[in-house]
Design a protein that fits this description.
3 domains; 64% helix; 332 residues; alpha+beta
Length: 332
């Protein structure tokens, strides 16, 4: 028999014993007895499910349990299941720090806030040691989350109006019941996904939504700023959305030569387009839009606001549709 395999199997048996606290090292006899009994082929699946339910399906502990249980036979898992309640109790004790952290943060931030919902989601994935560390630095953690909650508060009507003012790329009537403003970066891969979502929004909701696109090229994307300038140059010639789609379809080719090629493909006045880039005609406008974004706490892309409220997941058409539908319903 392969010695490495034998050692691995022996480790698996020892791990099974650790999971089921009541099994002694002399439990081999119990396992042999278990083999004579009818064992469910789903015993290992049941063991993982039982432990992951307590630890959290997305937790590191659950991932570790699943990886370990893959080494077990159904007979080994059946033995561990007999004492799984003790293991569950131990996991519950370890999770108390995370439960304490969640309760304290939600009480201090507000139990009905978006930030509290985020805390509830993420603490399920934290190892207990991380929760204990965060409790030790609680004042600092709370201050950071309060800042985040401030970011999540809906914009005032005045601030929202400032995001939609001027000759800005948009579609849909300005008096639509739902107004969405997106800050985006043509070199950002997540923005490409959001662009597909926006296309679906346009198809699905038509004139029920007024959508505004704002430039927010990130500094670590070398071609993003010039791509934004090029997009505004295309907007000046009435072809922003065609150029928008072309840029997102070719995110890895946003150099000057490629931008000019896209302008030619789309039938723009290339000489006028090139002059705008040479003179950096739209660079100040791009910088102004970035300043506008910073004023409403945009620090990454894509960022969307729906009737002034920050959108949770701009790249997911399902989630965005839910928020649009809710806003339309609220408007009557």
């Amino acid at each position: 028999m392969n010695q490495g395999y034998f050692s691995l199997r022996r480790c698996a048996v020892v791990l099974a014993s650790a999971l089921s606290v009541g099994i002694s090292m002399g439990g081999c006899n119990q396992m042999q007895k278990e083999k004579t009994e009818k064992v469910s082929p789903k015993a290992c699946e049941d063991l993982s499910a039982r432990l992951c339910k307590e630890a959290g399906d997305t937790s590191a502990t659950c991932t570790s349990v699943k990886s370990t249980v893959e080494l077990f036979t159904p007979e080994t898992c059946a033995v561990a299941l007999k004492s799984v309640d003790k293991s569950v109790a131990k996991l519950g004790d370890k999770r108390k720090k995370c439960d304490e952290l969640q309760t304290k943060l939600c009480n201090d931030i507000g139990p009905t806030t978006k930030t509290c919902e985020m805390v509830k989601t993420h603490t399920k994935t934290f190892p207990p040691e991380r929760c204990e560390m965060m409790l030790g630095r609680y004042a600092e953690v709370l201050a950071d989350l309060k800042k985040q909650e401030d970011r999540n508060k809906p914009l005032s009507p005045e601030k929202l109006a400032s995001l939609t003012a001027g000759d800005v790329p948009s579609f849909g009537p300005k008096d639509a019941k739902v107004t969405i403003v997106e800050f985006s970066d043509f070199e950002c891969p997540f923005c490409s996904k959001a662009a597909s979502t926006v296309t679906e929004v346009k198809k699905k909701y038509g004139d029920k939504v007024h959508f505004v696109f704002r430039q927010f090229p990130l500094s670590f994307h070398p071609n993003a700023h010039v791509a934004s300038q090029a997009a505004l140059a295309a907007h000046a010639q009435g072809k922003f959305w065609q150029f928008h789609d072309k840029l997102f379809e070719n995110q890895k080719k946003l150099d000057r030569e490629s931008l000019e090629g896209y302008a030619k493909e789309l039938g723009l006045d290339v000489a006028k387009f090139k002059k705008a880039l040479d003179d950096k005609t739209y660079a100040p406008a791009v910088d102004a839009e970035m300043k506008l974004g910073e004023g409403v706490a945009v620090d990454g892309t894509p960022t969307m606001f729906l009737n002034g409220a920050r959108v949770g997941n701009p790249s997911d058409i399902g989630e965005l549709s839910k928020e649009i539908d809710a806003a339309l319903k609220a408007q009557g």
